[in-house]
C-alpha cells in the first residue's frame, strides 16, 4: 500500500512546551488513519500542519502526489450565516475551479446527500445546529474530491444515529482515498480505523494497525464467569492469591463473587499454558472467559499511563 502523506521530523513548539516534537509518520492511501491522544497531545496542531494551515518549526510534510488536493473539516466548521447549505458546498467546489456545469450540480447534490443534509439544502446555515454544521463541513470537504481528507472530531456533536451514519461514510471514503481523523470517541475509532497513531505530549507513543495498538495496551488478565459457585469457595490453595509469578505464570487469582473470578498472568505466553489449568481448578461449569479491558479506550489509557509513569 502506497503512502499518501509522509511526515518527517515534524516539530512545532509553542511557549510553555505544547505542540508536537519530532513526529514521524507515513499515512497510507485508501485507508482510515486515526490520530488519538489526550487533550493537548498535539492532534489538531499536527492535522493543521498536514493540511497546510500552519507552519512547522522544522521537519516536512510530503504528499505521495505533489498535486494532491487536501481538504480539512474542523471540529466546529463555521460558515457565513446567510448562505444556504447548497451555496456553501457550491462555493467549496468553485474553489477547485469547477462551477456552473451539470457535473458541478450533480457533485454538490451528491455531497449533500452523502452527509445526510440534502433535505435542508435550501436552508440558511445560520440556524443550523452544531451537528448539522459538522455534516455540512464534511460535505464541503468531500465535494472537492480530495486525495487526502482530514476530519477533526467528525462526530463530536452528532446523535447516535448521526454517529452511525458518519462512521459508515468514513469507512466508505477510506476505500476511495486517504482519510485522517482525530477523535476522542475511541469506540468509534476502533470500528472504522485501519490504523491508529497515539500521541501524548506531542510525541508518537504507539503506531500500528488497530489490532496492534489494541494488543500493545492489553494486559493478560481475564474475567471468568461460572454457572454457579466453585465448590472450593476460596482461591485454590494450590494456586493461592499471588503477588508474584509462580511456575504457572499466575500473578493473581481472585474471587470477586460466587460466580465471578479474575486471573492475571505475567504474560500472554504464560496465559497460553496456564489459563486452562486455572479453569479446571475452579471445578465449576464455565459460562464465559473474557479478556478484561479489551477495547481501544482501555488500551489507550494504559499506553498513556505507562508513559507518564516511565
Automatic annotation (TrEMBL):
Query: Which terms are listed as keywords in the entry?
Result: ATP-binding, Nucleotide-binding, Transport
Signal sequence segment:
none
InterPro entries hit by this protein: AAA+_ATPase, ABC_transporter-like_ATP-bd, P-loop_NTPase
Q: Which residues form the ABC transporter domain?
A: 5-226
Q: Which SMART domains match?
A: AAA (SM00382)
Which SUPFAM superfamilies did the record assign?
Answer: P-loop containing nucleoside triphosphate hydrolases
> What protein family does this chain belong to?
Belongs to the ABC transporter superfamily.
Report the protein name in the record: Multidrug ABC transporter ATPase
Please report the organism this UniProt entry assigns to the protein.
Agrococcus terreus
Q: Please name the taxonomic classification of the source.
A: Bacteria, Bacillati, Actinomycetota, Actinomycetes, Micrococcales
